[in-house]
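As practice, study what follows.
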Amino acid sequence: MNIHPTAVVHPKAVLADDVEVGAYSVVGEHVRIGAGTRVLSHVCIDGWTDIGERCELHPFVSVGGPPQHMQYKGEPTKVVIGHDNILREYVTVNRATVQGGGVTSIGDANFLMAYVHVAHDCHLGNHLILANAASLAGHITIGDHAIIGGLSGIHQFVRIGAYAMVGGCCALGQDLPPFMRAAGGYRARMYGLNSIGLRRHGFSSERIAALKKSYEVLFRSGHRVAEAVKLARENFSASPDVMQVAAFMEGTKRGICRSVGKDQEGEEE
């Protein structure tokens, strides 16, 4: 291990042989860090925290601190971070609450830019990009390949589906289904498909066309969620992507982000 003389690493912490710990960083008693991970200077890793392989934690990152929750009483809840993640300057990741399941989790190959905040009981997937100062309240779930714009705020218990995109400076208070995009500042609205993102990820024209057609049924038909989902299942059963959106909508508890009118859809492209 390459541990700087000014770093403080608890003797009971478990670090792989090639882990790097930079100047003035602090690694707590219950921390485990995988092979190839670099902890740069002035990083604090505390609590019951597991970090995978080949991650990078930049200066002033804080991982595993107690949740900002009035009912937390010091229980040994956890943060679990996967492999190949980059956490830039001043990122904070809080450990979970007992009430929320006991684990805050981040998957693999994610890029959290400076000042991103991940609160207690959040569950982040893989290949995400969270731009500067994106803030996640507690109990948020984000699917794979999603993008969260800078200076955005996500309300507690909101779910964001795979391949979705939230624009910068947004306040998102309801669920954003897979493949969709939200924008518009305070009380963000849904602006159709994340078409550019889907094409960049190799979605075929046929897959995108099916999603676009289903969008009219799911979000512009005027039906309640249950009826819109039923119609989508009847008319687009051959599209696994549409079925994924339908299943996501069936699981909503906070409601689905409202769609703008068709004449406004291109305004945030």
Remarks:
- The longest helix spans residues 205-219.
